Amino acid sequence: MNRLFAIIDASSRGNFEKLTLHRMPGALPYAGRYRLIDFALSNIKNAGITNVAIFPFGNYRSLQDHVGSGKRWNLDRRRDGLFILPPKNLMMPSDDMLTFQGMHEHVEYFKRSTQKYCLIMPADIVWNIDFNAVLDEHIESGADITEIMHENTRLHAFILDKEQLLDYILNYDIIPYKSIHELLLKKKQLVRNIYNHQFYTKRIKDPYTYHRSNLDMLKFEVGNTIFSRKRPILTKEKTAPPARYTNTAEVSNSMIASGSLIRGKVHQSIIGRDCVIKEGAEVSNSIVMSNSVIEKGAILNNAIIDKGVVVKKETVLEGSETQPFVTQKEQILTDQSALRVLFVGAEAYPYIKTGGLADVIGGLSRALVKKGLEVSVILPLYNPVKEDHKESFEFITNHTFTFDGEERKIGLYRHERKKVKFYFIENFKYFERDDIYGYEDDCHRFAFFNLAVKEVLDTIGPFDLLHLHDWHTGLIPKILNHQMVSPPKTVFTIHNIDYQGECEQDVIDALNLPRSDDGEVNFMEEAVKEATKLTTVSPTYRNELRYEYYGKNLTGPLLKRDRDFYGVLNGLPKDFAPQNDKVILSRYDHTQVFTKTENKLFLQEKMQLSLGLQKFIIGMVTRITEQKGFPIILEILDEILSEHADIQFVLLGTGEEKYITALREVAQNHPGQVRLNIGYDATEPNFIYAGADLYLMPSRVEPCGLSQMIALKYGTIPLVRRTGGLADSVTDYDPFTKEGNGFTFYPYDAHALKEKLYEAYDVFKNDKDAWRHLIAQAMRCDFSLDTQAQKIHEIYLTMI
Amino acid sequence: MVLVGGRGTRLHPITKHMAKPAVTFGGKYRLVDFVLSNLTNSYIGTVGIITQYEPHSLMHYIEHGANWDLDVSGGGIQFLTPYTAYDGDKWQKGTAHAIRQHMHFIRQHDPELVLILSGDHVYKMDYTPLIEDHQQSGADITIATFKPHDSLSRYGVLKSDETGRLIHFQEKPDHPEGDMASMGIYVFERKALETILTEEMPEGFDFGKDIIPKALQEDYRINTYRFEGYFRDVGTVQSLYEANMELLDRPELLRLNDYKNLPIYTRSSDYPPHHIMLSEPVKNSLVSDGCLIQGTVRHSILSNNVAVLEDTTIDDCLIYSGVTVNENCQVKNAIILENTVIPPNTNIVFDEVKVIDNDILWALGDDSNE
Which one of A332-336, A519-523, A713-717, B175-179 scores highest in mean pLDDT? Predict the structure, then answer.
């Protein structure tokens, strides 16, 4: 009986955003009365296992609260029992998977465990499995390790001999495998056995799978398999009377937990404990967690309502099947279909653009308007904008106010474009220049802009909230909070933490604000301190910013604002689509992968590379800087081009001279293999997106990154470092299950990059079918602005 | 001291195989949950449970009392069962006699006050004000009283003077005087209890029938305490049914959803939330975990793990756990006991509430065949 001890790997963060702001994925409520980890614990109990360790990360309070002493699962024992083993090293972002090093931090536990076999599994799988059957098969197979899979997907659940495992743990710093997953991928002589679990199994990794899997429980066969009478799923005991239905209740195909009061309509939904669905409310295809109240006339469809939420009367929350509407815990939602928002930024597409910021402001404002919000955008009026557009602008008013001890005059203009109202602030002294940035007085210019925005708020408003972008708007929250009686709420988005806007205190004096104690003013820091909510451009980057390596001087202030800080992945405008691209030679979509090869030959010709479909073209469109990974690229580029004459390298970009020089040297050594296009208009970027095989992006830091998304859309397989937005958009290809849309590596070093690059090269060369499959999967990825807009809208709703 | 030994004859056949306190109430609860929750909510942690009739299901249900946080060291729950001693068998005959048989338990814990309770009442009560009232009155005994919603003749009827001192007591009188009834809840000075119980008494004596009249006669100082909350003695099938239905019709009386104010704890089930599978109406009802409902349910209370299959209609019923009501049945005004299986196409429609289990169903079937 007692042959197994179990490790629950609760270190996977998943991609739940708001749902895991206050809890770990394992502690997510599920099917009305459970938590995700109940499945792991109950399967363990039902197998008679009495020695269990949970490896959590981050905030595991709610997990600890839920499992308690483990008594419910027979784990409150004198011998063995339940152990919670948190990571010791909290200074570095942890891996998304339990590593041998992580286990080594608690090696005593492994040494003390007396059972012969170890079972390892994640905390976030919904399943009902007989682990003794797995163990029997493992022993019979004579394999080193048995991996449990379901329908050709990996579940990261394994059984192996304890002594073997201990050997890996004790030698974690010598062996080339970080985790059991890597061991399986890389150690060729390992004898593995696959246990195929045939019944319903779902790994919960994001709001989509969470929503979908909850609703799966409403299918009788699925519910019956999971909540089997033979192997029951147990959960923490709570006290609640039976659910009550009144005469006005109308319920169909729904699961409703104890203590709830149903007066309204519920269809295809899961209602948690102690919820109230009032008369006239309609809940469909939704998950409502415990203690929430849905008031009269509210309509929910495809929504995930976290615990203790109040949806006020007549409020409509509508998500989609693929993108359910997600609330935050204890949020109060009111009818805000026509929320009035003012975007503030230094640039916006299509008026003026130097980088991604302009695209985000232009695209997101439009996407929010499509959702029914009223969005205005306000910018400084620079010379180039004036020259190109001013005749179509409508003059609104002149306004004077004091800045830096002097009376200043501004002009206010308006231009409506696709239902977004754009406002422009004209000022001779500060904005009549040819460039947006790069002047000595930038801080004063944008401080002036910030004050001007406040001054015109009454004229162009009112607004429910202001959405501020990057450091150029950083002083607005401080100005509003100090100079207005009831300042509007603000969201501040960090696009790039490398530019924070630092200058002398005289800027503060110019604004007539009280000086802070520090020697310098930091625009971004002021915003981080004063804005109502903070966001950045990807969930992973948001987590990275908690560590000094990424967050730098703002780590402390950001950690302080942790509960108000969100990460939302930027969307990709629909314009990036190879089927509509008028620049490239042949248009194609994911069903015409072969057409892509015409673009490949065209690229080779255009770049004067030696022709051939067998060549492996690595493409890059990028700024040539340290951040983008050029130090590690240059370390191996010459080597790989020498080792494989059929690897080609095409680059478009500009940047730091020392890297360009080094690149030129490599190019000289490998004529016909390398083509550098230095300068932004050296060639069309889309030639590379459409023609290359692999898109290289080994960035050290990448808040979001758009070009990997473009590459994916064009079926050019990205190879990226798992950081920031790259980690949120590219998943590593698994040669066994064929899952994934690209190649990823984690440690920022040349060796890891080279290894991954050869892995990709190997698939390209030796498994054409797999490569085509990969292209098709890449092209099917969706990073729509609508998704981004919905998530941003959800954040707005937490503020009202 | 919680008395749970009664046979509950008037609740037959519900109590055929279980003690009255183990009877299901309000879908998820057992009657004994109320007294145990009241005890834990009053921070009373040393509890003797005196059992005799069909004790096993109850002992299995209560276990160590962990569900009510009564598994405390140095006190907690102790089951006091009849036993054989050198001076004879200690069977319990009457409520007061039962306490006397277990006086050793009281001595062992050496309290100043002894609170005597029943395991079969439905009420939420903090005993602290009762105990404080007792202490302030300086009395030997305090009897908790309430104003019944039904006939006083079912209860012990009390009359007190303006200080609350008991002056007159009648046990289940035909012509009651006064409007106060005894809840069967007593606070005793430990010394008074020992004195009054150790005196020679006829075999089989009760608090209501024997001890209180005797104490009154012997000039013990007896105080009365008026409890204003909801209180139901569910001694008969009809009163049990009515008290259950009050949960549907007047939920504001017992307020089971109010966890802040005296929560009632119960042992939780291992079932998933119930599943309403089709769009047949489920109205004005309480439904517990693990139920699968395909039919119509109106004005009824369903315990855990009840299946109601297609084209079946349930009206005005209490359905206990594990019951299956198959396809195309009509059931009205019934209390269906644990694990009863009602075969398809069955009509059991009653004008007055009736208890149903598998045996009774068979008997009904025989009748109709004749």
Answer: A713-717
Distance from C-alpha of B291 to C-alpha of A258, rounded to nearest angstrom: 11
**Looking at the predicted structure, is the pLDDT value of residue A616 above 50?**
yes
In this predicted model, what pLDDT tens digit does every residue of A277-292 receive, in sequence order?
A: 999 999 999 999 999 9
Characterize A239-265 residue by residue with b for buried, 16 or more Cβ atoms within 10 angstroms of its Cβ, and e for exposed.
bbbbbbbbeebbbbbbbbbbbbbbbbb
Name the band, by pLDDT with cuts 50, 70 and 90, for residue B367: low
Give start-end residues of each CATH 2.160.10.10 domain in chain B. 275-369
Considering only CA atoms, give the Rg of chain B. 22
Of the candidates A784, A287, A375, A745, the one whose C-alpha atom is nearest the C-alpha of residue A575 is A784
Q: What is the pLDDT of residues B107-140, one digit of tens each?
A: 999 999 999 999 889 999 999 999 999 999 999 9
Interface of A with B (CB under 8 A): 31-34, 71, 217-218, 220, 223, 227, 232-234, 237-247, 249-259, 261, 270-271, 274
Element (H, E) at B167: strand B166-171
The set of residues, in sequence order, having a beta carbon less than 8 Å from that of A69 and lying 6+ positions away, is A75, A76, A81, A82
According to the model, what pLDDT value does residue A90 have? 60
Distances (CA, A) of A779 to A511, A572, A616: 50, 13, 19
**Any A CB within 8 A of B281 CB:** yes
Side-chain-side CA neighbours of B149 within 13 Å: the count stands at 12
AA letter at B90: K
Both tokens assigned to A638: 């010459």
Residue with tokens 């999971």: A226
Q: Which of A217, A220, A245 sits opposite B285 (nearest CB)?
A: A245
Q: Locate A446 and state its tokens.
A: 């944008």
Residues of A in contact with B268 (CB under 8 A): 237-239
What is the CATH superfamily name and number for domain B275-369? Hexapeptide repeat proteins (2.160.10.10)
SS3 at position B363: helix
Can you tell me the distance from the alpha carbon of B356 to that of B342, in angstroms, rounded to the nearest whole number?
10
% of chain A with per-residue pLDDT over 70: 98
CB-nearest to B272 from A33, A240, A246 is: A33
Encoded tokens for B63: 């276990």
Round to whole Å and give the CA distance between A321 and A189: 43
With cut-offs at 50, 70 and 90, classify the pLDDT of residue A92.
low
- What lies within 8 Å, CB to CB, of A764 at 6+ separation is A616, A693, A694, A771
Question: Among residues A397, A789, A772, which one has the least CA distance to residue A588?
Answer: A772
Can you list the positions of beta strands (E) in A635-788?
647-655, 674-678, 694-697, 717-721, 743-745
Under the banding of pLDDT at 50, 70 and 90, the label for residue B270 is confident
With an 8 Å Cβ cutoff, are A258 and B289 in contact?
Answer: yes
What domains appear along chain A, each with residue ranges and CATH number?
4-203 (3.90.550.10), 238-333 (2.160.10.10), 340-567 (3.40.50.2000), 593-783 (3.40.50.2000)
| Distance of alpha carbon A495 from alpha carbon A725, whole angstroms | 11
What is the predicted pLDDT for the residue at A15?
82
Which part of chain B has CATH 3.90.550.10?
2-249
Burial class (CB in 10 A: 0-12, 13-18, 19+), B308: buried
**Residue ranges of E strands in A340-440:** 340-344, 374-380, 394-403, 406-417, 420-426
**CATH class of the domain defined by B2-249:** alpha beta
Question: Are A44 and A3 a contacting pair, CB within 8 Å?
Answer: no
Are B114 and B190 in contact by the 8 Å Cβ rule? The answer is yes
Q: Does B229 touch chain A (CB under 8 A)?
A: no
